[in-house]
Specification:
The complex is a heterodimer of chains A (531) and B (338). Chain A has 531 residues and is of the alpha+beta class. Chain A has 15 helices and 21 strands. In chain A, helix 8 packs antiparallel against helix 10 and helix 14 runs antiparallel to helix 15. The longest helix of chain A is centred in the C-terminal third of the chain and has 18 residues. In chain B, 78% of the residues lie in helices and 0% in strands. Chain B is globular, with a radius of gyration of 24 Å. At the A-B interface, helix 1, strand 12, helix 6 and helix 12 of A face helix 2, helix 7, helix 12 and helix 13 of B.
Chain lengths: 531, 338
């Protein structure tokens, strides 16, 4: 599941203005205190809403999973390099078709077992077999050998950037496959819940559906050790109202607010107890247009009718214009791609071609977006208003993410929406996911919720992974070609790219934004200072 | 009295049944696929079909409705789609927090409204009356979310007198975890000797309870004032006065006694109303009650859970009104004849 990072429902502009006006002088709210042992992460949506299995979890659980589980490598967006994690070194041979990873010694799972190449292999094979989440990142893997206790050798069907793929934020975790005991059902055991990772934290309490949803505690046997200042507990607190999140942050009751309404985020600036961080992300808001029910001119007309600058202005710094599907910083991004711009005259002309538009037959469309996300709500309302001028009646429906997704995947096409809004971000530092998940033919649909099917593009998508491994320049060109094709056929449009706006207390250091791991705070790397 | 009570219960059952049918129809009209939501994101078409069968969604709507009614009578309110748990079990977890909050709010409202209403009636037209009437109007008319934010800003953020949000301090999870017995935190904490938790819940509850109390306090103050003023000129009250009773006794004991009937009816109605009104307050104060559960149910198109919440609130309305009706009928025989 690849849903959203929901922004809470703001209680209206007046409230935001009130907070903005009153918030500036609230610095006194944080009394001096000793370095806390507990790091509290304020999130707007349920954290573990897609199960506890590290092989298949594909949703907001990433922010907690990344504390409990580790991958062979980790991507550093600052250096654009893949760094060692559970693997200390690696090399490729045979033109990118054979990869050898040397594992870190002395790493223990939370179950107490020593991490070996054999267990790592079993974990990866199980993930590949289950085929959930982002298991497609190991699609090239043919066999895995374990010549010794600490060496993994991957033999691939075609060249693939496995060091990059092994750093994926989903489905690349190494876990103890025997955690449930001999003959035990691992998935069932994990969902109890338990965890079977090697990360610095392990699950202490899960209060499903409650405000203090998840508490993690430090894993004493963590290979990185616990010398020096570290948080010993991590609390994930679900706060659905952003005004309340703001108050909690100001009072010091939470340490980090994942995302918050732009006007309230601005009100934090100048508060000495709070640090604000803004950073371009690799996340964009997509409009997936139903290619089964909407003709090409209608799809294009809709995209020309959207007031993109208006949306970006309304989001007050939380969004910036996109160019194509691929955000800046990833292979295949280009600022010279053709993009849809706000052009009502062209939209009207295209609609007329299809027999719709002002003075003609009205067009009735539906749009679904994720409930609780104030930014998506703004976009939906602006789109409704934009399209109304062209005699298009857009009915908008906000739904919980699982319901929105289930409705879009329904076997009954009558349940399908005309336009599906959702956020998308990469599973690893490559744009492959935008193409394989959103544009490749899927029967039944999974994330291709525009129900688009194009054999030429399918073939290009099948080819691009191996091109990335052998010739990044050729891969960039291929990604560009596919984006142009997407522009021409208009099944998916990136309405804007998300600008992360985080707010946090100043009582810790070490926070770095890493867009390869959406909204993840690697808590172990933080240093509580107690200011 | 028995005939009267039987008649009222029959009417109450009809009301509840009507609410259930209406909610069931509305929930079915909204397009969606609860079976797919139930089966989860990685489910195959066969698993979704199996879920549809398991949930009974492949049966005709009329049969589903009849089955639902049958279930209600046997304590089976269905399985919530978004939690995969029996709706009744879910409600047993979330409803106590809301009921606790609204009960606290009603106590605050009565403690405030009775003396203020009497003071207002005792000296009508005076400055105290004007201030109390203005305050009552403010309490009734001020948007609840606005008041919640203002109180949160002043008492939590600025003055640091009360906590911002939540049911209790998260740090107590590590030192004094709450053991749930009845589901009511303010009962469970003292029952288990967990006094730090009791204090924490009480302090966390105060602000949201005051916010919820604003409307009933305003309403009841005005009602008590009007009722007392209405009866103060009656001959029997005049007689009490002529017998030499103090003005405090005339107002507090005799005039107020006559005002209790309509006030009790209003309290019952306002209690149930506040239960719904609390949803927004719960969101602002992160109070773990019916509000967040209802929101999640609606956005998940979770028909059994939506029906369960609606049925629960309808029952609260009906039972509260029934109790007041019986109470009134018991103390005033004229009501039975109406």
């Amino acid at each position: 599941m690849k849903p959203h990072r929901a922004l809470p429902i703001a209680s209206g502009c007046a409230v935001a203005l009130l907070l903005a006006a009153c918030g500036g002088g609230s610095s006194s709210s944080a009394p001096q205190r000793a370095a806390s042992q507990v790091f509290t992460y304020d999130t707007t949506a349920t954290v573990m809403d897609d199960g506890w299995d590290p092989a298949t979890e594909y949703s907001d659980g990433i922010i907690a999973m990344s504390q409990m589980y580790e991958t062979l490598t980790r991507y550093d967006a600052a250096t654009h390099r893949v760094e060692p994690l559970l693997a200390t070194s690696w090399s490729s041979a045979d033109g990118g078709k054979t990869w050898t990873f040397h594992l870190r010694h002395g790493v223990h799972f939370h179950t107490g077992r020593l991490m070996t190449a054999q267990i790592a292999k079993a974990a990866l094979l199980r993930t590949i077999k289950l085929g959930g989440g982002a298991a497609y990142v190991f699609g090239a893997v043919k066999t895995i050998d374990t010549p010794d206790q600490y060496t993994l050798v991957f033999h691939l069907k075609y060249p693939s950037p496995l060091d990059l793929e092994a750093s994926a934020s989903y489905s690349a975790y190494i876990y103890d496959t025997d955690a449930a005991g001999p003959g035990g059902n691992l998935t069932k055991w994990l969902n109890t819940p338990h965890d079977a990772g090697t990360g610095p934290y392990e699950v202490q309490t899960w209060n499903k559906g409650q405000e203090l949803e998840l508490i993690l505690k430090s894993f004493p046997g963590y290979w990185g050790g616990w010398s020096g200042p570290h948080y010993k507990k991590v609390v994930f607190r679900v706060v659905t109202t952003d005004t309340t999140s703001a108050q909690l942050l100001r009072s010091g009751a939470v340490d980090f607010v994942e995302q918050i309404g732009p006007s309230i985020w601005k009100s934090f600036q100048g508060d000495p107890g709070i640090r604000t961080v803004a950073s371009p992300s690799w996340q964009n808001l997509l409009a997936q247009l139903n290619a089964k029910s909407l003709s090409l001119p209608v799809r294009q007309a809709i995209l020309y009718a959207i007031d993109y600058p208006g949306i970006i202005a309304a989001l007050q710094g939380a969004a910036f214009p996109s160019s194509g599907l691929v955000p800046a910083g990833l292979l295949g991004h280009s600022t010279s791609l053709p993009n849809y711009t706000y052009d009502p005259a062209k939209a009207k002309q295209l609609l007329n071609q299809a027999g719709y538009g002002p003075g003609k037959k009205a067009l009735n469309l539906s749009l679904t977006y994720t409930s609780g996300d104030s930014n998506e709500q703004v976009v939906a309302e602006l789109m409704k208003s934009n399209l109304a001028k062209l005699n298009i009646n857009l009915s908008t429906q906000s739904l919980a993410w699982p319901t929105q997704w289930a409705k879009a995947k329904s076997a009954n096409a009558a349940n399908h929406q005309s336009i599906f809004l959702e956020y998308w971000w990469p599973d690893y530092a490559d744009p492959y996911t935008w193409f394989t998940n959103l544009l490749q033919t899927q029967k039944p649909p999974y994330f291709n919720l525009s129900y688009y099917s194009n054999p030429i593009m399918d073939a290009q998508i099948n080819r691009v992974e191996s091109v990335v491994a052998t010739s990044p320049a050729a891969a960039a060109a291929l990604y560009r070609t596919m984006q142009v094709e997407n522009f021409q056929q208009a099944p998916v449009d990136a309405l804007y790219n998300v600008n992360y706006q985080y707010a946090m207390r100043t009582n810790f250091t070490g926070f770095k934004v890493n867009p390869a791991y959406a909204n993840v705070v690697f808590t172990y790397n933080l240093r509580p200072t107690g200011s | 009295l028995i005939v009267y009570v039987a008649r009222r219960i029959a009417t109450a059952i009809l009301v509840v049944a009507g609410v259930v049918v209406l909610t069931f129809v509305i929930a079915r009209v909204v397009p969606g696929d609860p079976a797919a939501t139930w089966a989860g994101p990685h489910a195959s078409a066969a698993q979704v079909a199996a879920a549809r069968h398991y949930l009974g969604l492949d049966r005709p709507p009329a049969i589903q409705l009849l089955s639902y009614f049958g279930g209600i009578l046997t304590g089976n309110w269905g399985i919530a789609i978004h939690t995969h748990r029996p709706v009744l079990s879910d409600l047993a977890v979330v409803a106590p927090a809301s009921l606790e909050l609204v009960t606290a709010a009603m106590i605050i409202a009565l403690v405030v409204a009775v003396p203020l209403g009497l003071i207002s009636a005792r000296w009508p037209g005076r400055a105290s009356d004007q201030v109390i009437r203005a305050g009552s109007i403010l309490g009734v008319s001020m948007p609840i979310f606005w008041m919640a934010l203002i109180l949160q800003l002043v008492f939590a953020q600025r003055l640091h007198l009360l906590p911002v949000a939540g049911e209790y301090s998260p740090s107590l999870l590590f030192t004094h975890p709450l053991t749930r017995l009845t589901g009511f935190g303010l009962i469970d904490a003292p029952l288990t000797g967990n006094w730090p938790m009791f204090g924490s819940i009480l302090s966390h509850m105060l602000l949201p309870a005051v916010v919820i109390a604003a409307y009933p306090a305003g309403l009841l103050t005005r009602m008590i004032r009007a009722q007392v003023l209405d009866t103060i000129g009656d001959s029997h009250v005049q007689m009490v006065r002529s017998l030499g009773f103090s003005e405090r006794a005339v107002f507090g004991r005799f005039a107020m006694k006559l005002a209790w009937n309509p006030v009790a009816a209003a309290v019952a109605l306002v209690f149930a109303y506040s239960l719904v009104n609390t949803f927004l307050v719960e969101a602002i104060f992160d109070w773990p009650g019916l509000g967040s559960y209802t929101t999640a149910s609606i956005t998940s198109l979770d028909t059994p859970a939506i029906l369960g919440v609606t049925l629960f609130i309808a029952l609260v309305y009906v039972v509260a009104n029934l109790a007041v009706d019986i109470f009134q009928a018991a103390i005033d025989p004229r009501i039975r004849l109406r």
